[in-house]
Amino acid sequence: MFRTTARVMGLLKRMRARVPWSVSARLCDGWVRAPWFQCKNLEAVHVDDRELALSKPLVGPVFEVVGREGRFAVLDYDGGHLRVLAHALKPISKRVIRPGTQVSLADGRRGSVRYVGWHSKRDEPMYLLYLEGKKKSKRYWNSDLTVAP
Questions:
Q1: Reduced 3-state DSSP string for 80-134
Q2: pLDDT tens for each residue of 98-142
Q3: How far apart are alpha carbons 76 and 55 in whole angstroms?
């Protein structure tokens, strides 16, 4: 079993290395998720940014692409910038509400988005909010939130 898994992983690694930049560039516009972070595969992170990537480990993060630097996509990372190989990112086609945005719930409460993560089983973004000045641990979904005017 282990040998087969190692062979498959080696094959996938070689295939990813062959992805031309023009193809991977199209994959990293807008919002992306970074599955490499969950397995702590820092090979995809720029050498100068690896310390930053280790300092704030987040599970299932969603990032906004803010630019490109050669083969790397530049991600907004908690107020800083993190450079990651574009082919290591997966694009998100669903609506994503930016952290800090004021939102309202169906029951009339208002708050702001404090974290955007990715829920793999539901295949959609999930949100953690500040409601009434307090951090809430309940997860919210796109269907629960409307952007406040």
A1: EEEEEEHHHCEECCCCCCCCCCEEEECCCCEEEEEEEEEECCCCEEEEEEEECCE
A2: 999 999 999 999 999 999 998 989 999 999 999 988 999 999 999
A3: 15
